[in-house]
Design brief:
By secondary structure, the chain is of the alpha+beta class. The chain contains 11 helices and 10 strands. It has helices spanning 93-100, 119-132, 140-159, 171-186, 194-201, 205-216, 220-237, 243-249, 255-266, 270-275, 278-285, and strands spanning 6-12, 16-23, 31-33, 40-46, 49-53, 56-60, 64-68, 75-77, 84-91, 114-116. The strands form 2 sheets. The protein has a 6-stranded antiparallel beta sheet. Strands 3-8-5-6 form a 4-stranded antiparallel beta sheet, with helices on one face. Strand 5 and strand 6 form a beta hairpin. The longest helix has 20 residues, at 140-159. The radius of gyration is 19 Å and the shape is globular.
Length: 290
Amino acid sequence: MTMELSRDVLWESDEFLVLDSRWDPATHRHDRKLAIVSPCIVLMRRGTYSRTFGNDVSIGDANTATFYSPGTSPVISHPTRIPTRGTTIRIQEDLLAEMLADYDGARGPFPAHDRPVTSRTAMMHATLFAGLTSSFPGDEIVFEEVLMGLVREILDDLFAIDPVASLPVSDATKRRVTTAKEYVASRQEEKVTLQDVSRETQCSSWYLSRIFARAEGIPVYRYLNRLRLRTALDRLRGGDGDITRVALDSGFSSHSHFTTAFRDEFGMAPRDFRGANPAALARRIAPLNS
């Protein structure tokens, strides 16, 4: 009998439940319809999935925070058939209402289905997961602060005025951009050209370049690069100790290329992130959450 998903509790309190959520094509159902009962934020560490609300299809990957509101019934599928790893943050409804009171005009649990993840948010997510999956006696409060800061950062981005996101985008454009994101996610470890992606989306490279940047706020190559780097965060903390192997497996041409891109994105070298004590990483981030 196949299961819908594997979940392990990483952190639990009266206000939050943090879960390690995993999907594998060999043991889990490929498509499922959810009945959401609690507000949730999902942050991916590896892989990608597709989520459908009526006619609206969105992609969940390491570049995107996805939001789930109570009373909704999205359909989840895995078009790439690649195993996924993600972190689910369930928030107690009264607490979420208190949080949203800080944002003028906030209506409903979440006003959007997804938002791009910033480099800082990605590092906070990686630090939180590293801490909650390791032994950290006496440091629980530090990781609680990281969790609070992570949720605050995501909500700040969710309610920020984004001139790119406010531009009208047609349904046809959304479908092409979704197809492009699925394609690069399934081939992030390979050499990918803009022409490859444009063939998959059945439009010219010129047209794809324009509509993708308009819909996502960044060009295709940068979206792919960020996806590779954020997947590398999980690999580095997950036991893939050889940085050159992580670099090549992530789609980078060399160790130096990967190190430069990683430092530009996260402000530290891959070896420093891999070897850092999770509590030390958390203390580095937590004071910034004021």
